Amino acid sequence: MPALLCLLPGLALAQAPAPTPTPQRQQQLLRMLQQDCGSCHGMRLTGGLGPPIHAQAMRELPRDSIAAVIYHGRPGTPMPPWKSMLSAAEAEWLAGVLRGEEVKP
Ligand code: HEC
């Protein structure tokens, strides 16, 4: 029942702080941030087709909202949803990385 399992991280997120991804998964997510997100938001996340998403800009937004944009995308704009690529907990972790709250390994 893979579909059911996919729902679990989202449910856990509503109650408890998101679990930190394993170091190996963190590397994958950081690579995705550079390669996939960087293609629209710029190599240094200072903006391109998408707006700047560096720490200075992201600290203006609540971590939950950033995670929601990453997970669901922003309908009607080129910002795609990433929920097929990562879990809600991982989106939450990435949001923390963007805000400079998570130490990059
Ligand atoms: C195809 C281009 C594209 C890709 C790839 C992309 N984005 Fe975006 N993103 C956008 C655009 C365009 C917006 C602005 C949407 C709007 O007009 O509100 C945006 C908005 C955002 C925002 C909200 C910024 C704000 O100031 O409100 C965040 C956070 C974000 N993206 C993170 C990411 C992350 C993390 C990734 C990689 C997992 C990613 N994006 C990949 C195009 C992209």
CATH architecture designation: Orthogonal Bundle
| CATH structural fold name | Cytochrome Bc1 Complex, Chain D, domain 2
Structural class: mainly alpha
Terminal Cα span: 33 Å
Biggest sheet details: none
In the predicted model, the low-confidence regions spanning at least 5 consecutive residues are 1-13
CATH superfamily: Cytochrome c-like domain
Number of domains: 1
Mean pLDDT: 87
Global shape: globular
* DSSP strand tally: 0
CATH classification, class level: Mainly Alpha
Strand and helix order: HHHHH
Strand content: under 5%
Q: How many DSSP H or I helices?
A: 5
Oligomer: single chain
Bound molecules: heme C
Radius of gyration: 13 Å
What does this structure look like?
The protein has one domain: Cytochrome c-like domain (Cytochrome Bc1 Complex, Chain D, domain 2). The radius of gyration is 13 Å and the shape is globular. The protein has 105 residues and is an all-alpha fold. The chain is built from 5 helices and no strands. The structure holds heme C (HEC). Heme C is lined by residues 32-33, 36-37, 39-41, 49-51, 53, 66, 69-70, 74, 77-80, 82, 94.
